Amino acid sequence: MRIPTNPLKIANNLILMLDTVLGVDRYPVDIKPLALDYSRQRFPEHYIKNVKGDDLPGFEGALYGKKRNEKSRWLILYNDHLIKPERINFTLAHEFGHYLLHRNEQIKFECSSADIARMTDKAERESEANAFASQLLMPPHDFRTQIQDHSISFDLIEYITRRYHVSLTAAVLQWIKITPKRAVLVISRDGYILWSRSSEAAFNSSVYFKTVGRSPVPIPELSYAYQRKTTIANKAEVQHQEGIWWKDEPVKEMTVFSNKQDLTISLLVFPDDAPTRWVRKEQTELRDNCHVFY
């Protein structure tokens, strides 16, 4: 059985180095030169030789190693058919995470969305690489500074994606992780929830969707997310009455339709005060049903 690594600790060491050398206002992180220079200086006998785009059918990115005697050389590839640059940026950080965290375990990593979604040992490595990438690209200390005193809005999310050069989903996931608000990110396709992630405050008030190891969970028919096939707008913010998305609570729904991946991305923001009867913490429940950061 493999011993899990600590992706946040390793990312934080790099963040401290970058803050010291480049200053605190140094975003977005340019992963390619960082991976090349850092690996050569820190691991001169096992450095990353190249980072480049290539045709990778079925994969978002890959890390390949070649060993000779006690030395090794590594190659990071990203799918150059990915149109959005911010997805490439996260992919590079993800593969750099595999290099730093897992290169002693295997010499080939080929990463697809399907791999990340599986609850397997491989998925554990994918989750660690995702955690590393998210922390490195969007350090919590800077992220908090950017969002403080601002209510969540499409304008704020767009600003975050530009500052850190990440996708909308990655930006909202980091906001969910940091916010004191009761909020849930829901990713759906064809009217069913693929996965979700609750903020700590939402989870502590028992607001979460169980998706792992269960039958597909439908999205509410009265939600804006359900209107994907009947609306021409690609995003909307809607205030719902009680009982639409969750039991007896009203909720603000912010939904974006992603045509590229055929996904519906919904951020649900609940009132700060939870109904008393729902305030309890389920210690045995898995809060983190999320396995995809792209």
Total number of beta strands: 10
- Helices, by number, come to 9
Question: Outline, from the CA principal axes?
Answer: globular
**What string gives the helices and strands in order?**
HHEEEHEHHHHHEEHEEEE
**Spatial order of the strands forming the largest sheet:** 7-6-5-10-9-8
What is the CA–CA distance across the termini? 28 Å
- Overall radius of gyration: 20 Å
Quickly give the structural class. Answer: alpha+beta
Approximately what portion of the residues adopt beta-strand conformation? 15-25%
Number of domains: 2
Percent helix: 25-40%
Please give a handful of descriptors for the protein shown.
single chain, 294 residues, alpha+beta, 2 domains, 4-stranded mixed sheet, globular, disordered C terminus
